[in-house]
Amino acid sequence: MASTKKLLFPISTDHLFADGYAWSLELARRLKARLFLLALNARHDAREKIYHLLLEATGFYYTHYRHGAHTEKVTADTVFASGDFSEEVPQFIAANSIDIVVMGEGMNLASPISVPESLGSTGSIVLASIPLPQGEEGKDRFYDHLVHASLRNLPPGFHAALGKDRAAYNFLRRFFQRGG
Fold first, then answer.
1. Pairwise CA distance, residues 155 & 97, whole Å
2. DSSP assignment, residue 46?
3. Is domain 6-177 in CATH 2.40.128, yes or no?
4. What is the pLDDT, as a whole number, of residue 112?
5. φ, ψ for residue 26, nearest 5 deg
6. Which residue, 125, 119, 114, 117, is CA-closest to 33?
7. What is the pLDDT of residues 111-137, one digit of tens each?
8. 157 Cβ partners below 8 Å, 6+ apart?
9. Could you tell me which of 37, 47, 45 has the C-alpha nearest to residue 78?
10. pLDDT at residue number 113
11. How far is CA 157 from CA 4, 32, 60, 123, 162, in A?
12. What is the pLDDT of residue 77?
């Protein structure tokens, strides 16, 4: 029996994270993985703001990613940490055997050390900011982000798991029809 993959998405009130959070939830759904949110610099007084931002991000997910007949429940475990990226993320990875760290644009700049050094051999996906095209609110953004993301050390089976997804076929068909 294969073990459940574990994903980590660090968040902070210093960076907008709705699109990255929504993408991470969708990745967890497609990989049937467990998603952890690590709220950085989360002093007690900042927790209310984090919960508010997570509520907005969940709305973004249901608006831009949950189309059609997906019935699987997708959740994320939120963990609050008082330290910053370079301190908390490597500790959390080691303590929880994280397979993939997903970072939204700007989060990788929050670390004073380079992202690859801080993550060791853990897989990483760094999302680039992509605008939401006008009139395409119902379009699946998952593969648009994946095409523009920086991928590193992804675990075996990552691409095979996504290859079983019909949306991948549809995305590739559209991609090649418009000439890349």
1. 12
2. G
3. no
4. 43
5. -65, -40
6. 125
7. 444 455 556 667 777 777 666 665 555
8. 2
9. 37
10. 41
11. 12, 12, 28, 12, 9
12. 93
* Other C-beta atoms lying within 10 Å of the C-beta of residue 131: 6
Number of other residues whose CB lies within 10 A of the CB of residue 112: 9
SS3 label, residue 151: strand
Edge-to-edge strand list for the sheet holding 123-126? 76-80, 34-39, 6-11, 100-103, 123-126, 150-152
Q: What's the token pair of residue 150? A: 């920086």
- Beta strands 6-11 and 100-103 are parallel
Do 152 and 103 form a contact (C-beta atoms < 8 A)?
A: no
- Residues in the chain predicted with pLDDT less than 70, given as ranges, are 1-3, 67-71, 105-121, 129-140, 163-180
pLDDT on residue 172: 58
The secondary structure of residue 144, as a DSSP letter, is H
pTM above 0.90, yes or no: no
Sole residue written with tokens 């549809």: 170
| Backbone angles phi and psi of 102, in degrees to 5 | -105, 130
> How far is the CA of 27 from the CAs of 1, 76, 83, 127, 128, in angstroms?
21, 12, 26, 12, 15
